[in-house]
Amino acid sequence: MEFSGRNDSETCPICLEPLLREAYLDRCFHAFCYQCIAQWSKFVKDKQSQSQSSSKCKFSIKCPLCKTENFSIVYNFDGVSFHRHYVNDNHHDSFFSSNHGLRAQCYRSEAGNLFNIQQYWKYHRYRQKNNWLQNWLRREIQTLTLEEDVDIIVHHIQGVLEAIFTRKGDSKQVTPEPRREEFRALLSDAAMPFLHGRTARFVDELELFLASGLNIEAYDRVYMHHLGISPPTEEARDPDPASD
Predict the structure, then answer these.
(1) CA nearest 4: which of 99, 144, 107?
(2) What single string gives the DSSP state of each residue in 149-199?
(3) Positive or negative CA dihedral for 160, 161, 162, 164?
(4) How do residues 149-186 score in pLDDT, each as one tens digit?
(5) Residue 19: which residues within 8 A CB-CB, separation 6 or more?
(6) Which of 156, 145, 151, 136 is nearest to 211 (CA)?
């Protein structure tokens, strides 16, 4: 499944009307009307509560479209702040900041050709060490998995990248396209067990970040300007969207 929050028809899959106050589920990123998905989540939670004897069980909501298990609804995202409602009232992800929310918005949008990827491969710029790569990987993987502890995944992917870019006996005569294809294939294989349907877009974003040559802050500013949204300030949360 391609990582895309918006439905092609721009209609809510529940009410079949144009999206009103767009909201999306945190794992599959399918979009719905805010009230529709909030009511759906309440219905699902009430149904689960009746079948569970323990009050400590971790509630989730399966997407009405793809049946992916989700744990929260993200809505009222305006480029500066967003609201988030957890299906499980006792669940809190304090690590998920406005920067994470902005990156989620980026993954739901078309990136376009922000930087010259062809020159990155043509002039072997991948040989230059990227001092911000580890922090960027951590933020991206946290955004896509909604998990705080992603160090194992980060080190695994970073190790694959280092093996590709520092391979002994590598010649500068290698043409850019085969090297790029190898990069994308090996990285996809490394990320797929963790990111599943979001893998292809993650590889695109990683390649874009590497080609930019920018630090994380500068990269974000360029990306936000491209999408026409403002830098993050303070995150807003609403604990009960069903009552809004």
Answers:
(1) 107
(2) --HHHHHHHHHHHHHHHT-TT--TTS-HHHHHHHHHHHHHHHHHHHHGGGH
(3) positive
(4) 888 899 999 999 998 887 755 555 667 788 899 999 99
(5) 7, 10, 11, 12, 31, 32, 33
(6) 136
Q: Which two tokens stand for residue 51?
A: 């079948």
User: What is the value of pTM for the model shown?
Assistant: 0.60
Q: Per-domain residue ranges for the chain?
A: 22-109+231-243, 117-212
**Secondary structure letter of residue 84 according to DSSP:** E
Please, are residues 201 and 107 in contact by the beta-carbon 8 Å criterion? yes
C-alpha to C-alpha distance for 6 and 218, rounded to whole angstroms: 27
- Amino acid residing at 6: R
Q: Encoding tokens for residue 71?
A: 């744990």
Both tokens of residue 170?
A: 């590598």
What 3-state DSSP class applies to 219?
helix
What Rg, from alpha-carbon coordinates, does the chain have? 20
pLDDT single digits (tens) 213-231: 999 999 999 998 888 876 6
Could you count the other beta carbons within 10 Å of the beta carbon of residue 218? 12
What are the Cα distances from residue 147, in Å, to 68, 141, 143, 208?
Answer: 16, 8, 8, 23
């040989």: which residue's tokens? 127
